[in-house]
Amino acid sequence: MSQRIIAVDDSDIAQDFISATLAELGFEDVVSFVDPRVALSAIERGEATADLILMDIMMPDIDGIELCARIRALEKWSDVPIIMLTSRTDMGSLSEAFLAGANDYVTKPFNRIELQARMRSCLRLKSELDRRRSDETRGARRRSAQAIFEATVPSMLGSKAGFQANLMALSPAMQKELGLIVFRIDGDRDQSDAARVQRKELQRLVAGLFGKVDIPAQDSLAHWEDDLFVLGTLHSDRAQLEQRAQQFIKQVAAASATVKEGWTSRRLTVSACIVPPSDAAVASSLAQGIQGVESAGKTGAPGMISFASTDIGHLQENGQH
């Protein structure tokens, strides 16, 4: 592979592990920085180039979130994919990373196959953006982007990378017309092997149930990651988004599936967080939706619908389904 990768991590041990892993995956052109300030300086001065950046969140002086935001502020680096490497699983840090412009994250100690899949998805996204940018006129790019988005008919759920590509293909004006619904399978994230197997089964079950819901051709529905799903739709107000969310929640409820938790069982349910169209950046809206549905799933009743805090300043329960 010819892609150049920049790895920023203040741990020498982590850098050695990253370099060895990337070499096994076929990425030989890797530039490592243990000091985030040196990395930022090299990038700002044009001394460093990359097709993708791997970046630790927890670093001294400049943490990964600040470094990500400062790189994103540079025009030539606005579309270079950034994957955060973190041992922290709290959604606060991950949401901040998305707000700063991160494309994805991998939790340490990362799985080699998972890292490879996420890197390839990000690199494909970068290639697609570069290809679209080579179109002859700005108007042609926008017409192409709109056609791609509206042609997404998810008879099967799309991937996270495909969903991101659809969103980033929208013109700035169309992004302001975009509403989002983030769904989460209710229940705690048990880290046991048995629980992980069950979560995968539940994800496949919910994906199948979601696929049965009729949605307009302009909508884009995808499995975001783990127990999160996301739907993007154009020109829908808050009431229409709530109605759409209820369709998915009721579809799962109608299946009457159960989930084993220890010695007991509970009904399978999903919660949703609605993010109406706004002037906010898409990454910010996604982060707010993820935070909102996480809060709803942990503190609210099962099958809860909430609104992103940026919309009304607090989470609002709309009833159990």
Considering the chains and any ligands shown, give keywords for the structure:
disordered C terminus; 12 helices; 19% strand; Alpha-Beta Plaits; 2 domains; alpha/beta; five-stranded mixed sheet; 321 residues; five-stranded parallel sheet; globular; single chain; Rossmann fold
Description:
Residues 136-156 and 310-321 have low confidence and may be disordered. This protein has helices spanning 12-24, 36-44, 64-72, 91-100, 112-133, 138-150, 160-169, 172-175, 193-210, 238-255, 282-299, 309-312, and strands spanning 5-8, 30-33, 52-56, 82-86, 104-107, 178-185, 220-225, 228-234, 258-261, 264-267, 270-275, 305-307. It has 12 helices and 12 strands. β3, α3 (64-72) and β4 (82-86) form a beta-alpha-beta unit. The modification 4-aspartylphosphate is found at residue 56.
Proportion of residues in β-strands: 15-25%
CATH topology of the largest domain: Alpha-Beta Plaits
Please give the CATH architecture of the largest domain.
Answer: 2-Layer Sandwich
User: Structural class, from helix and strand content?
Assistant: alpha/beta
Can you tell me the number of structural domains? 2
Count of helix runs = 12
Q: What order do the SSEs take from the amino end to the carboxyl end, as H and E?
A: EHEHEHEHEHHHHEHEEHEEEHEH
Major sheet strand order: 2-1-3-4-5
Q: How does the major sheet shape up?
A: 5 strands, parallel
Overall spatial form: globular
Distance between the termini: 50 Å
